[in-house]
Amino acid sequence: MAVRHETELYKPIKNFFEIRGYEIKSEVRHCDLVGMKQGEEEPLIVEMKKTFNLPLLLQGMERLKLSSNVYLAVERNRHKKGAHNQRWSEITALCRKIGVGLITVTHFKTKSPFVEILCEPSAFASSKPIVKTRQSRLVQEFKERSGDYNVGGSHGQKIVTSYREKALRVAHAMRDGTPMRPSVVRDLSGTSSAAAILQRNYYGWFERVSRGLYVLTPAGKEALEEYHYVIEGRL
């Protein structure tokens, strides 16, 4: 049973690693899937494509700058359609050579998908030095998100980042329409950067009505409805 979208690979892979003790979140700083495990500093990164191709390989090589624990994940077609599906030994050897792991996901009509690791990542095989500043930003973004509100492999979708979460908390604190000072919004929302979020107004959700006083715009009210599941997850 062939998958139609990369997003269909996300849930089986997420479940696979959650069983192994990872907390999983998707679309973190352009990575399809990121995981953190208690006691481990290196983040898990998985990049997904329906089939193995050069862009996926290049993505994996780029992610080795963020972590040595990087996997590439593709569908394994049971009907063996396509040239790549008949050359798993060669693809696995290539992944080992550059230091990334390889995961396949086989879908069935009447039973759960089967996730298989064909090879593990190898820090010794990779020649890519980890850029610690970029790794730190990835881990910080992961930790600042309250939950997994995206689907790995999505394209053209709005991503719930940690910044969007903070802006939503600020908007939720201002939902009754009363003009508020940034210090009051900060205390009500529990968001230390509330003043900067109000002043920057990146999403157009806030309006300054007089010196030091802000209200929620109609766009902000719409955002609270659109992202209600994020707010409910925080309450």
Automatic annotation (TrEMBL):
Protein name (Swiss-Prot/TrEMBL):
Restriction endonuclease
Q: Which domain of life is it from?
A: Bacteria
